[in-house]
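Re: the 154-residue chain
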Amino acid sequence: MNWDYLQPVKIHFGKGRVKEIKEIARELGCERGLLVAGPFFFKSGFAEKVIKESEGMIVASFGDVSPNPDVVEVDACAEVIRQKNIGFVVALGGGSPMDCAKAAASVALTPDSIRKYHGTGVTRSGWTGRYTGSFSLFSKTVVNSLNMEEPPTT
């Protein structure tokens, strides 16, 4: 089997890199950022520090992200993006905020729910390096109340 794969993803990682958000956003022609982070970063005050250090580039935040975020959280984040006319998203934390941010940013370009595009998005175990890709893993924890099929149990 032969195949080629190209996924150009630029990641900015390291101590003090928060100060570069404003410059990076400008280089990309972006304005009006959204910070997506887990609750710990809001409780600790670090999310507020990131927003402040963006010097006005990050104009909103979303912190309702649980481990393996569910479709309700992704849709809520996407609605913030739509309502506040967000131009870029910064994810702070581990895989859950990154998965939520990527899925929400993608679906926010449509009027739809993420459910339309991601069948049963259930993760049962983490993957090393999955956070740098263009895909997201999240859960459908509300399947019964939405009359949707049960997620697989494997």
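Residues 78 and 104 are 4 Å apart (CA to CA).
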